[in-house]
Specification:
This protein has about 100 residues and is an alpha+beta fold. It has 4 helices and 3 strands. The longest helix has 19 residues.
């Protein structure tokens, strides 16, 4: 099995946010997406910079939610992933 590529990790993070009613703390993302804290910080910064996620400040905590662009990323990733799977072109990745 291969390691997850960068796009798969982006998808996993965005999907975790989506599945938690589009409002989640970073610790929950950390566990559900199976990432180390330094990697999570790096990916969250990149997703935020590219306007795929929104950082919300509530009291003393930060929560994360998807932007419209983030929802679009999930839909398009699933479309491509399904296409590759149908034609047997999907590489097996560890999850």
């Amino acid at each position: 099995m291969r390691k997850r590529n960068r796009l798969r990790i982006f998808y996993d993070i965005l999907k975790v946010i989506h599945d938690r009613n589009n409002n989640i703390l970073h610790t929950h993302i950390l566990y559900k997406a199976n990432l180390s804290y330094p990697l999570l910080k790096q990916y969250l910064a990149e997703l935020s910079f590219n306007n795929l996620i929104r950082i919300n400040h509530f009291k003393a905590k930060k929560t994360y939610s998807l932007t419209d662009k983030g929802f679009d990323f999930i839909n398009r990733y699933q479309l491509v992933d399904g296409f590759l799977d149908v034609f047997g072109l999907q590489e097996k990745v560890s999850q």
